[in-house]
Write a structure and sequence with these properties.
Elements: E1 6-8, E2 14-16, H1 29-39, H2 43-49, E3 54-60, H3 66-81, E4 89-95, H4 102-112, H5 119-131, E5 141-146, H6 153-160, E6 164-169, H7 183-191, E7 193-201, H8 206-215, E8 218-223, E9 230-235
Parallel strand pairs: 3-4, 3-6, 4-5, 6-7
Antiparallel strand pairs: 1-2, 7-9, 8-9
Helix pairs in contact: 1-3, 2-3, 3-5, 4-5, 7-8
This protein binds S-adenosylmethionine.
S-adenosylmethionine is lined by residues 23, 61-67, 95-98, 149-150, 170-172, 177, 179-180.
Length: 237
C-alpha cells in the first residue's frame, strides 16, 4: 500500500509528509502558477517567437502536475491560434522523488481546478495517462518524468539530448529543502540551458539568488504573486 505523501491540514491545504511544507495554497493556486512560471518565463511570447519545432521546459518537482497542466493549456491555446507556426511540440521534463498516488493527485486537482475551466479535461487526461503509465498520449505535449532524486536529474536531461528553453524551479521552501536549490544543481541547469533560455521561481531567498548568479544566470527580482514581496526570474545571456 502506498503511504500517503500528503497530509491535508485543518484548512484543507496539502502539506508534504517529507518536507512539512505546502505544495501551494489551494486558493489561487492556478493563478499563482500562471503568474510565477508562465508569465515569469514570458512563455506565450516566447512560443510566438520560437523558430524551432520544439520548445523544452525543465521543472524541479512534478508534484501534482499543476504547472505542467497550465503550461500544456497555454501551449494548446498557442497552437490553436497559430497553426502554421514552426513550433509544434512541447517537451516537459520534470523530476519527482515522492510521486503522489493517483487518488492524491485527483484530490488536489479537484480542489484547485474549477470544473468548468478548460484545464479540467486536461487534468483528467493526465490522471488517466499516469495511471496507464502512458504519458505519450498527451497530443502535442511530450511529458517525461524522472522518478528519482534531484541529483539524478542532470544526467536524465543529458540523455534526452535537448537543451532547456525555460526552467521552473519549484522544490518546496529552500530553507526546508536546500537540495533542490544548491549551486551545483544550478550549474548543471545552466549548462543544459539554451542561449537566452530563462528560469522563474517563486522564491527570492538570498542563498538561492547567489547560487543562481554563481551558476552563471543573469538574475532579476520581480514582484511576487499576491501578497508575496518578491520572486526571481533570470536568463542565460
Ligand atoms: C512544491 S512541490 C512542486 C509542485 C508542482 N510543480 C506542481 O505543479 O504541483 C515540490 C516537489 O518537489 C519534490 N521533491 C522534493 N525534494 C526532491 C528531491 N530531492 N528530488 C526530487 N524531487 C523532490 C516533492 O516531492 C514535491 O512534489
Amino acid at each position: 500500500m502506498h503511504e500517503s505523501t500528503i497530509i491535508w491540514n485543518d484548512n484543507q491545504i496539502p502539506i508534504s509528509r517529507y518536507f512539512d511544507d505546502v505544495y501551494f495554497n489551494t486558493d489561487g493556486a492556478v493563478d499563482e502558477t500562471r503568474y510565477v512560471f508562465i508569465e515569469g518565463n514570458c512563455l506565450y511570447d516566447r512560443f510566438l517567437q520560437h523558430q524551432q519545432e520544439t520548445f523544452t521546459i525543465g521543472e524541479t518537482g512534478f508534484g501534482s502536475g499543476l504547472s505542467f497542466l497550465i503550461t500544456w493549456q497555454t501551449f494548446k491555446q498557442f497552437r490553436q491560434k497559430n497553426p502554421n507556426s514552426n513550433l509544434k511540440k512541447l517537451n516537459f521534463f520534470s523530476v519527482e522523488k515522492y510521486p503522489l498516488s493517483a487518488s492524491e493527485m485527483s484530490k488536489i486537482h479537484n480542489k484547485v481546478i474549477n470544473h468548468n475551466d478548460a484545464l479540467w479535461p486536461l487534468a483528467k487526461q493526465l490522471q488517466d495517462s499516469l495511471k496507464r503509465s502512458d504519458v505519450d498520449s498527451l497530443e502535442e505535449a511530450n511529458l517525461l518524468i524522472c522518478y528519482d532524486d534531484i541529483s539524478c536529474f542532470a544526467d536524465f536531461l543529458v540523455q534526452q539530448n535537448s537543451f532547456i528553453d525555460a526552467w521552473f524551479f519549484d522544490g518546496f521552501s529552500p530553507a526546508k529543502n536546500p537540495d533542490m536549490w544548491n549551486e551545483s544543481l544550478f550549474k548543471h541547469c545552466y549548462q543544459l540551458t539554451r542561449e537566452k533560455g530563462t528560469f522563474a521561481t517563486f522564491t527570492a531567498a538570498g542563498f538561492v539568488r547567489r547560487n543562481l548568479i554563481n551558476a552563471g544566470f543573469n538574475v532579476e527580482k520581480r514582484k511576487g504573486f499576491g501578497l508575496k514581496r518578491e520572486m526571481l526570474i533570470g536568463q542565460k545571456i
